Queue: 4 jobs
Job 1
Amino acid sequence: MTRLKKSIEYHKSALKSIPLGVNSNFRYWGPEDTLYISHGKGTYIWDVDENRYIDYRLGWGPIILGHSDDRVDEAVYTAMRRGQTFAFSNTLEQQVAEKIVQMCPGVDKVRFANSGTEATMHALRLARAYTGREKFIMFEGQYHGLHDYVMFSTNVGEGDGYNSNRRSPVIFPMSSGIPHQIQELVLILPFNDLENLERVVKQSGHELAAILVEPILGNAGGITPAKDWLSTIRKVCDQYGIVMIMDEIKTGFRIAKGGAQEYYGVKGDLATYAKALGNGYPVAAFGGKKEIMDQVGQGVAHGGTFTANHVSMGAANATLDILMNTDALAIIEKQGQKLQEAIAGVLKSAGLPCSFSGHPAMFMFWLADKAPKEYREWIEMDHDIYNNVTFEMFKRGVMPEPDSREPWFLCASLSDEDIAKTATVLEDSLKVVLAKNNARK
Ligand SMILES: Cc1ncc(COP(=O)(O)O)c(C=O)c1O
């Protein structure tokens, strides 16, 4: 009998009313492995077959304290009992906004949204309105959600070994249904390539509304910014009057109380937040310099029926309270370091090279002496062992994403015992995969 019997049944039945049986294409793992979750608590989730997993996906990042944190849930119940959404402002939103302003360097004012997609869409619109320009730069390996303007990628030869020229990468839409006309508005450059960036900005800086950057490539293995990368973006933005948008949707309220802007000491003009802001409840925000944010409402549209609703604000208020006033993030960082040491130990015993990218709260390990510095290097790497090992781990109750583009996320509930179990499961999984590989030779 299969371990995922009920999930398979759910999936078959869900196919009748939901395309692919899931509500995000990324949740589809094929007919045999698409999981349905019954509940989560702390660092664990349980599927409908009652298999328990140590969860390192954490909803792709939002769970910062632990699944279903009692303190956050209590605040949500309290807020919810007083109503959900009013077509008026509520009394919690100012409290949440003040906390964000206090915690995040570079954020003077903030507006809320419901998802990261919405937050990057609004930030981009605001940058365009403020500068009166339309084009923007983003970088290879980044992801900013599903609105049309950011759904472009470059041809960096996934699978066919063909890399488009790094000085002028070939851009393509990431989905059918995206208008080709807006492709002219985006330039995508290799991450961490300072010279190339400076050259392009010198050529087209006066046409650029924004440079949209993920400070750590949270959608490409947590690739770490090179020394001077973020400060160079800051410098060219200042030189050419371009709005620097830090997409902190994965790094915000995770790698430091003030996110990447605090951690790396570089302030954007605007920043976007979501994920850890509500410990799993749907809430997002965009904020930044007063003079830019004050354009909102001065001819720049922003709103939404559910924006800053009472329930999300209850969640964000409690989550930020905890992050601000406890050492939750320091604990996560410490546990992340311990987990990295445990992983490095297992790989060393197996005679494999090991390196890390990202931050201990969202990192990737590489079966290589050096972590990739940009997405093109990720493409060139062999990911078979990693993908197979993580899939074996999933079968044994430890759940990182079986794709090294998605970092390992940690929450404050991860215990030393969980780390020890993760190391044992990694060791067992590695043995299975290496034995299979050797048998094939
Ligand atoms: C950096 C970044 N920006 C934006 C988004 C989009 O957020 P959402 O999925 O909430 O729309 C994501 C989602 O993973 C992200 O990682």
Job 2
Amino acid sequence: MISKLSDLFKPIPGTEAGTCIVCGFETSRGHDIDLSDNFTAWNLLQEGDVICEHCYSLLKNQDYRRKSWIADSQGVRFLQRGEVLDTLLNPPEPPFAIYITRTGKKQGFLHLVNRLNYSRDRFFIAFDDSLIFVDRGRLSEMVDVARRARELKFSKAELLGDIRVKHWEHRELCERILSFSKNPVWEVVVYAVE
Ligand SMILES: [Zn+2]
């Protein structure tokens, strides 16, 4: 049964029994707690004494930290930056989870451990070390605005609110950009738009 993020990852069984510090579930097939030096997300762990066979799989493969990915009942697939917006606009059948990283340095996907998505219209994603709520209708408006602005040669800095005078000939577009500029979803859109 799929009840948490790491259930979407192929288990690597161990021999230790206890409570998992990542997902909080009990297991008899866990591993000793031995996190690599790259591990930075101590604040996202919970009380326990092992890492379960599912969370071990999620933490063991460093590509899950370095790259963006989507996980669903079919498994895990890495995402290129150019695929991010279409993936968010057309998420798969639930349950699913989506991690987007710019830096490849954090284990921000741990925000999603007990937060699998069951709706394609309103869902959470992790973006580096932030947890972000996405409303798909609102996202679609933002993607429209971002794509139109990019066609008109707006830079990414301008999309983040630093708009040069010459672009004010597109006043309505500029105003919409400014209305989004403090929104965390907009930050994801600006990162991912071509
Ligand atoms: Zn676990």
Job 3
Amino acid sequence: MKRLFPARATFIGSFVDQVPFSTLPDVVFAGRSNVGKSSLLNSAMYRKDLVKVSQTPGRTRLLSWFDVDARLRLCDLPGYGYAKVGGGEQLAWQSMIETYLQKREVLRALAILVDVRRGFEEEELLLLRTCHQWKLQPILIVTKCDQLKSNALFNQKVAIAKQMGGDIKRDFIWYSSKEHDGRDELWKRIAGFTGLSDAAVG
Ligand SMILES: Nc1nc2c(ncn2[C@@H]2O[C@H](COP(=O)(O)OP(=O)(O)OP(=O)(O)O)[C@@H](O)[C@H]2O)c(=O)[nH]1
Ligand SMILES: [Mg+2]
């Protein structure tokens, strides 16, 4: 089967307190710690361990950037909501994204990841509002879909779509980083608003 892009993804670096300069479009991936951000980025970029999957969830405060075919950049944000980090963590996280991401002209989309068994909670609804405020394209990604059997998965899709007032097929990407389900849909979505086309990738 013909593979959609990317042809080649490389690690740019991890940064604590800056975003490396670029004129390429950015897509950033946000979600609760352990939701599967790093695994999804590896799957999306057709790589096994380009993105480090953290041993100690919730510890890393770095933003990791990846170049895709010298056409766009993806960013793995630190996870939020890890129980052991405690009180002001959510605020610190929110202020981090405001400091580094707000008003970046090249920032095109914010992918919001939720575990299929949890769905969208307060933090994700806040992120969705941030997208509207900043005029960013939200991409709603539901992860670990392989963890539910097909009936339970279907019921959960219906429940999540109903809660969000969305359409199962159109408004969500149902992903499994294990099976790579959802990968083509993700790239089609990204291609749609970054102006990349399938044919441009060799
Ligand atoms: N079955 C299954 N497991 C997954 C999937 N995606 C991630 N996992 C597992 O979930 C755990 C967390 O995955 P990560 O990719 O490290 O999650 P993360 O969101 O990057 O976590 P932080 O970096 O701590 O914020 C790992 O044990 C993964 O193997 C998936 O699609 N299916
Ligand atoms: Mg991670």
Job 4
Amino acid sequence: MEDLSTLNSFGLHVNAKSVYRIRSLADLRSAPSDHALILGRGSDILLTDDYDGNVLVNCITDTRFSEDGDFNVVRCGGGRELDSLIGELVSRGISGLENLSAIPGTVGAAPVQNVGAYGVEIGSAIASVDYFDLDRREFGTIKGEDCGFGYRTSWFKEHPERRLFITEVEFRLKKGFHPVLSYKGLVDTALDTPYKIRERVIKLRREKLPDPSVVGSAGSFFKNPVVGEDQAALLQRSYPDIPLYPLGGGRVKLAAGWLIDRAGCRGITHGNAGTWDKQALVIVNRGNAKPHEIVALAKYVSIEVFRRFGIKLEPEVRIYGRRGEITWDQI
Ligand SMILES: Cc1cc2nc3c(=O)[nH]c(=O)nc-3n(C[C@H](O)[C@H](O)[C@H](O)COP(=O)(O)OP(=O)(O)OC[C@H]3O[C@@H](n4cnc5c(N)ncnc54)[C@H](O)[C@@H]3O)c2cc1C
């Protein structure tokens, strides 16, 4: 058995049969992949138990740059740290992904939940995704427009039964500087280069999120719920200061962190698990937490939010038990 505590950002002490680090396509072909769990850096998962199988860790990091008319084209191995890629893009003066600076994890995992922050989602820059199908034992490519990108979701997340190991992602980034500065903290005319935006985003994130190298967490534990306009209007009548983000089409996004805070759950603890006092949406390991403490705290938070607002929170993190992925309602 191998310990996975450095392969999940909660830092939970759980084991798997074996861990295989995939550095090339040849490694991937030869790795024992029956019932294998695919991991990048484990920064979006909760492991509730020992995993009864092998883990394949993506360590393919080759990156190639080229140009195609008005676009910079970047092909990047799925095992590279997303933030290291963004750092290199910014230093080359390539704009488009700087708002996603400092999101932990790999390039290969980024399309899975369509990572997003500060008004940018990675799916908008993805031209194609290369994969190896672990069951059919064949390589393939999916075009960006066929990836089903949505808020914190994609075709890959919706179809876990297909067990596709993402080997490489191709980005197409329009040449020139295209700042997205609509979010609080970025509305500032001094932010006139990708580098300055990256620095500001890193600063803002440090102020409100735990440093993953010090405090274990998986970032936002829950997704921001989306409700209909009528329900949003009712909530606003009872809570005039509730933040509402209209999405169009009669749908409104709510801030899960605000709901958790107002349900009285910011900064609370259960055993060695707690909610982060600067951002209630983040559940943290306060030191040697056990998986059941994280689960119990998350369940408590979701029940309190439901009792207060009638809103059902859905986890953003992927949850894995002994035999594979499990749904929120199964635990
Ligand atoms: C402090 C902190 C802050 C965060 N902030 C944000 C944020 O602002 N925005 C945001 O969107 N997310 C955020 N996250 C969540 C996380 O960073 C992202 O989801 C990231 O993409 C996870 O990358 P990973 O390599 O760690 O994936 P993992 O956690 O290893 O895997 C996540 C899922 O993707 C699958 N997967 C991983 N790699 C591959 C692959 N190569 N092929 C196929 N499937 C794969 C796994 O099986 C798993 O289901 C944050 C997390 C932390 C800890």
